[in-house]
Write a structure and sequence with these properties.
Blueprint (H helix, E strand, L loop, with lengths): L9 E3 L2 H15 L2 H19 L5 E6 L3 H15 L3 E6 L8 H12 L4 E3 L9 E5 L11 H12 L4 E4 L21 E5 L17 E5 L4 H6 L4 E4 L1 H4 L17 E5 L6 H13 L4 E6 L4 H7 L4 E4 L7 H6 L2 E4 L7 H12 L4 E3 L2 H8 L9 E2 L3 H8 L3 H6 L1 H12 L2 E4 L5 E3 L6 E3 L11 H14 L4 H19 L13 H8 L6
Length: about 500
């Protein structure tokens, strides 16, 4: 855990930090219940702002303090004249002292509590207050039945703090999970709500700090969120007297027979992201296509890995893996690149070859695995990686002593002694072959500018994701990697209107 956040980005917190903030706030307010009252009131204000005309509200309350927040919200809704009631399973009667107090206050205000019977009557909105940040296990059978009914209701769903069933630290769902329309985070942004399964569960996100800013400033940071707003002015512009050598020389290695498109995409991205020179080492049969597609790149058709040495010597950064293959040709080029002292960006088959024979990597190496490649490197299953993406990225970074970009929804960037970054950009349309090859070229180009490995990985991953969002303006389905090339150029120069 790291206490000092970076100046750019939004700090994210884990459950342990949030518990500490809660304790600090309770001490400051002099009453544990005062913070719950604030949470309920903030949730009611958020509900009114989002659904101002709603009249019939059902609040599904669980047994803990998240349920207590739900009782408080329902009390405010009831006192405002709305048709509001609490639904719960008998086994989910309040268990904590605060939830019991909130339940009693709700009853004394004339509030109604009904047993859940598989439906929500004539409700217009469901408020999910089943489980909060403390849940890290699969919901039991009764809770799963409620969650299934919420998801099948067709009603808008407002989750308090976290969609029930989602692990707020890991971003994974070990069992059933509520698919919220809108989620209000309480006190601080939660690390797990920005990666992994959270992307399909949270809906839109909002935050109510409950006046806890002073306590937040003292709390340890679990990760830092990077969004489109953080990209502007983050990539240095060229000096007015710049020449091509100032922007570095990227060598892209890959494209075994039949796989030439991947390395061409990496080269395209490196050029569009500002590399001064880009060379491509590939099979000879791919060079004519390279020259026809991108004459600005210097193509080298190599059947013999021995001819790679002079290309490595001239390069500032080496990107290895797109279309490389795992046969003798690709393995020989892979071994020579790893034996060089050049800064490396490894992707695709370079990672699969590394998983077959682990070795010490040069300082400043950047790995860009998707979850399947990360699983092979770690000896895990893909499901195990996705169950705790933060832990997987951190373990890879420590194992290889390098920077790791764990791709996927909520891409993570990790490195030893660094606070992990979460990329809060990108979209499902980018789940298509070739997108990772573009990312390799993006990162390699920024590394060639002279950025250190962690900075290049963070900025490159964010640039790639933001360009993907821009390219998806006309729709996500059917999005192609080459569609990102124009937006990459726009955003590497500061974004629209820069």
């Amino acid at each position: 855990m790291y206490a000092v956040p970076a100046p750019r980005g939004t700090p994210l917190y884990d459950a342990a930090a949030l518990r500490g903030i809660e304790a600090s706030m309770a001490t400051r307010l002099g009453d544990d219940f005062a913070l719950m009252a604030r949470a309920g009131q903030a949730a009611w204000r958020e509900l009114l702002a989002r659904w101002p005309d709603v009249q019939r509200i059902v609040v599904v309350c669980g047994p803990g303090n998240n349920g207590g927040d739900g009782y408080e919200l329902c009390r405010y809704a009831h006192e405002s004249g709305r048709d509001a009631r609490v639904l719960r399973i008998d086994a989910h009667a309040p268990r904590t002292a605060l939830a019991q107090r909130a339940c009693q206050a709700y009853r004394e205000a004339g509030g109604r509590i009904k047993a859940f019977d598989d439906g929500f009557g004539r409700a217009q909105l469901v408020v999910d207050a089943l489980f909060g940040i403390g849940l890290s296990r699969e919901p039991d059978a009764d809770a799963a039945r409620v969650i299934d009914a919420i998801n099948a209701s067709g009603l808008p769903v407002f989750s308090l703090d976290v969609p029930s069933g989602l692990d707020a630290d890991r971003g994974s769902a070990p069992g059933r999970v509520v698919h919220a329309t809108h989620t209000l985070q309480l006190l601080a942004p939660h690390a797990g709500l920005y990666t992994g399964a959270a992307a399909r569960c949270t809906g839109s996100l909002a935050l109510a700090t409950l006046d806890a800013e002073e306590a937040l400033a003292q709390a340890p940071v679990a990760a830092i969120r990077l969004g489109q707003e953080d990209l502007r002015d983050w990539i240095p512009l060229r000096a007015r007297d710049a020449h091509k050598g100032d922007s570095g020389h990227v060598l892209c290695i890959g494209g075994d027979t039949g796989k030439g498109g991947a390395v061409l995409l990496a080269a395209d991205a490196a050029l569009r992201c500002g590399a001064g020179l880009v060379s491509v080492a590939t099979r000879p049969g791919h060079v004519p296509a390279l020259l026809a597609r991108r004459p600005e790149a210097m193509g080298h058709g190599l059947d013999d890995a021995g001819a790679l040495a002079p290309l490595l010597e001239r390069a500032d950064v080496v990107a290895v893996g797109p279309g490389l293959g795992q046969e003798a040709w690709g393995a020989a080029f892979h071994d020579l690149a790893l034996a060089s002292t050049k800064p490396l960006v490894l992707d695709a088959d370079a990672l699969n070859l590394l998983a077959r024979r682990t070795r010490v990597l040069p300082a400043g190496t950047i790995l860009t695995p998707h979850p399947g490649e990360a699983a092979r490197l770690l000896g895990f299953t893909t499901a195990e990686v996705q169950a705790n993406r933060f832990a997987a990225a951190r373990l890879l970074a420590e194992m290889f002593g390098c920077v790791v970009v764990l791709k996927g929804a909520g891409t993570l960037v990790a490195a030893p002694e660094q606070v992990p970054r979460v990329i809060a950009a990108g979209n499902p349309g980018m789940a298509v072959g070739g997108m990772g090859d573009l990312l390799t070229g993006c990162i390699a180009a920024l590394r060639a500018l002279g950025l250190d490995a962690f900075d290049a990985a963070c900025r490159g991953a964010l640039l790639h994701a933001v360009a993907g969002d821009a390219a998806a303006a006309d729709g996500e389905r059917g999005l192609l990697p080459s569609d990102l090339l124009g937006p990459l150029r726009t955003w590497v120069n500061g974004g629209p209107g820069a």
